[in-house]
Amino acid sequence: MNRTEAIQAAKNGSIAATISGVLTLAVVFFAMYTDSDGDLGLWNDASNLFDIALVFICAVGIYRKSRAAAVVLFVYFILSRIYLTISLGRFPGFFLSLIFLYYYGKAIQGTFVFHKLEKAQNPEYRAAPRWYYFVGIPLGVVTLILFGLGYLTMTGAMPSTEVLAGKKVPQSEMETLLAEGIIDEHEKVEYFYSAGFSSIMEDGNVLTDRRVISYFKNEEGELVVYELYIPDIRNVELVEEGNYLKDSIYQVNSYDEDAWLQIVLSTESGGDVRFIEALRKKIEEDP
Helical H runs in 156-216? Predict the structure, then answer.
């Protein structure tokens, strides 16, 4: 690869990154505007904008022949495909992904060749200002940490940060709920959320086809479980509205004024709203 080819490879990688960023931005805006659920619900989250910003930053960096930007984007793209595959249960856009990986891989080659040739022509050549390293390295480390945490939540090694539809709950967590007697094998879990950090046994909230459940470990480490069956529920009230930094709190009231429970739900991707809407729909439909 000569100097001209190296420059063109970097330019093509930058263009590919820009196209990827624009397409992802359009999907995120559509998912958020329509409040999408299901598979498209993965993009119904404003936190995706940080990922898109990273892609655009890398696109600019690659255009400026940044080797770090090219490597970060290549690694980020692979990790994002792994994350989506685990989330969706399939590999989305396989052939399109190969095309992007090709251009990102060529961009890595192009940026390294470009700087090698530049240094050969000028021994005093310095590739990038020192502050690039103080910004780029921490950004890359943070990105890898975030993807690592995301992988742990997807596999059930750590509780998810969002409300999960029943079919998205990891099998290991379903088995834990059954083993602890929080749910039984004859009921269907429709939504589940745990605010626990290292284990879902720290606390959790479950909506099944029969009841709503709230559980936690008390100071003695004993499991405490509260439940209300759908026919016994009078209404649901919002106690405290959450945001990206804190969970929403709802109170589920029964026809017996002395019987009620509170549930804590993450606002991420609108999960708290979907959980409560599903519960209210069951209350309305119950004869």
Answer: 171-179
Statement to judge: residues 41 and 134 lie in one domain: yes
Domain boundary among 132, 155, 178: 155
Q: Do 71 and 28 lie in a common domain?
A: yes
Shared domain for 16 and 36, answered yes or no, is yes
d(CA 161, CA 265): 10
209-240 pLDDT, tens digit per residue, is 899 999 988 877 788 889 999 999 989 899 98
Residue 92's φ and ψ, nearest 5 degrees, are -80, 135
Please count the structural domains in the chain: 2
Phi, psi at 141, each rounded to 5° = -65, -45
Nearest-angstrom CA–CA distance, 212 and 218: 19
- Reported confidence tier of residue 243, pLDDT bands at 50, 70, 90: confident
pTM: 0.55
Give residue 37's pLDDT band: very low, low, confident or very high (50, 70, 90).
Answer: low
What length does the chain have? Answer: 287
Full domain range(s) for residue 105: 3-155
